[in-house]
Amino acid sequence: MVSMLNWTDDMLVHIDEIDDQHRNLFLLINRLIIHKRNQGRREELMDLIRVLVAFAQTHFRTEDHHMAETSYPLAMVHSKEHLKFTERIKEFATDYEKGVEDLSDKMLSFLRVWWTTHVAGSDKKFATYLRNEGYIP
Ligand SMILES: [Fe+2]
Ligand SMILES: [Fe+2]
Predict the structure, then answer these.
(1) What's the CATH code of the domain at 19?
(2) pLDDT (tens digit, 9 = 90+) per residue, 15-28?
(3) Ligand 1: distance of its center to the CA of 27 in Å?
(4) Cα of 38 to ligand 2 centre, how many Å?
């Protein structure tokens, strides 16, 4: 059985807006895991993809804003990762239309990697910077 993601408070960036968005993403990934477990309807994947597209637009705009505001030195690299995420999610929409099989598996493995490398990696690195620079307590 696919295990659910666990939330730990060391994921917090300590900017409420960003943390709320990360919590939403966390819930979305677990929703996908439940969908897989229950062998949910394929159409639900398209709903998830739509929500992910909307999430990406809002969330990346928020992070980009805070990175610019605090002159984050790794902003360019970080934003490139965001761009890649957005492109991949759009590909999922195309894959859905094409009737690609195992789409939920592909989405899940992509999102898990995103969670561990970007949210728990790059975003955390940004949070550390914010703390060291005195922007957050
Ligand atoms: Fe993020
Ligand atoms: Fe990010």
Answers:
(1) 1.20.120.50
(2) 999 999 999 999 99
(3) 14
(4) 30
At residue 131, does pLDDT exceed 80? yes
Residue 96 belongs to what domain range? 15-132
Is residue 58 in some structural domain?
A: yes
Phi, psi of 98 (to 5 degrees): -75, -10
Query: pLDDT value at position 2?
Result: 79
Nearest alpha carbon to residue 88 among 123, 127, 53, 134: 53
Ligand nearest to the CA of 79: 2
Asked, for residue 8, whether it belongs to a domain, the answer is no
Query: What is the total count of domains within the chain?
Result: 1
Contact 70, 133 (CB under 8 A): yes
Residue 105 has which token pair? 């598996």
| Mean pLDDT of the 75-81 span | 98
* Closest by Cα among 99, 117, 98 to 109: 117
Average pLDDT of span 54-68 = 97
